[in-house]
Amino acid sequence: MDDVTTSEPLIVLESVNKWFGPLHVLDNVSLSVGRGEVVVVIGPSGSGKSTLCRTINRLEPITSGSITFDGQPLPAEGRALAKLRSEVGMVFQSFNLFAHKTILENVTLGPIKVRREKPAAARERGLALLDRVGIANQADKFPAQLSGGQQQRVAIARALAMQPKAMLFDEPTSALDPEMVGEVLDVMTSLAGEGMTMVVVTHEMGFARHAANRVVFMADGQLVEDAPPTEFFANPRSERARDFLSKILTH
Amino acid sequence: MHVFTDPKNFDAYLSGFLWILKLTGASAVLALLLGVLLAAMRVSPVPVLRGVGAAWVNIFRNTPLTLIVLFCYFGLYSTLGLNLADSLDLNNYWLGVVGLSAYTAAFVCEAVRSGVNTVPAGQAEAARAIGLTFTQTLRIVILPQATRSVVAPFGSILIALCKNATIVGTIGVIEASSVMKDLLNENGDAVIPIFLVFAGTFAALLIPTGYLFGWLANRLAVKR
Predict the structure, then answer these.
(1) Å between A12 CA and nearest CA of chain B
(2) Each residue of B189-223: pLDDT tens digit?
(3) A83 in reach of chain B (CB within 8 A)
(4) Nearest CA-CA partner of A87 in B141, B137, B130
(5) Model pTM?
(6) Number of domains composing chain B
(7) Do A158 and B145 touch (CB under 8 A)?
(8) What DSSP string runs through A18-32?
(9) B126 vs A85: CB contact, 8 Å cut-off?
């Protein structure tokens, strides 16, 4: 892991604050994610972990503080922001596949419309990505015809089609039936194994244990702990983390 | 039925409905394009565009179509000298199309805008997350889904447009209702049959249109 920590980090959040009206959802959060690092963010609901994830590609603007990606501060808006987003893949809890486009079109839309790739080349790579996530035989179907697990794997392929420098996962398995969680986590685990930089908000402690380089624990908008998974799960330092773990690990 | 066996009257009847179809066809295309554009303006983050879109809808949706069509003739043509075609007939036709399109676009805009509300917010977020710009998000992801969810209201708007086309008779286009008025004047003994034939022809054109749009609405609906 030394090789990831020595190079310049890819994502840096410094003293980030975010208010939703009177609600302080991110309270002075600082976090850096190295290249190739997998950071899993856990915490009780309402702790601000999804908001944290969404600030990294500025789907949520922040109130104060700074966020840099690959050495550059996040652009405020316009084409520069669109370009940044094209370099950061995002996977949502509710999949959000384009409902009026086929599976293959979902995967090729970004490369064709954003990167101006030739449709034939984008198609070829799209099919290869769908094959990789195990959905190639469904390429001409529409999202509503697929199961949740299949849709989420397509969503991962759609993000990967942009050849992103990092991937954000915002509770990717929370909307899935239990038997479909595994197939999505398998894809994520293999992605982590290939050195993709990932920020994963999840309740899947198993994934945190075996795939994360670091676990970040959030509560009440604050980043409470930041430790390697073995250390975090064996010896949580804060009372909040011990309390949280005792509630989820006893069942 | 002796009125319609006279070839002169029958030709007038056919030509009257041909004008209705031409007015409806051209106005439908223009109103659809303009209405979608206005809807895009009304949901845009640019205050000036939103203002223009809102003003358009408020002005044209709340002004009687007769006034709008008369303004096209007396205002745009007589006063401002807007000439859209060489022949007088065609010029009146195009002035009518301008009025009908401007008016109907307001209704198309509001239908599309209500369609935008049926598209889940996640669709726009996913579009932005892969790097589409605001305009691309609207054009490629939001508006196609929004318009497909309002096909049935589009049918009602088209039916209203076709009937509204009779108002263009007030500026000299000899469309169906003008022909009917002439025939009534000349054939006082056959008022009811003449009414029934003209009303029946509108119904024969528009009832299938309603069913067609109902069928299209089902076929084009975005499955979620």
Answers:
(1) 19
(2) 999 999 999 999 999 999 999 999 999 999 999 98
(3) yes
(4) B130
(5) 0.87
(6) 1
(7) no
(8) EEETTEEEEEEEEEE
(9) no
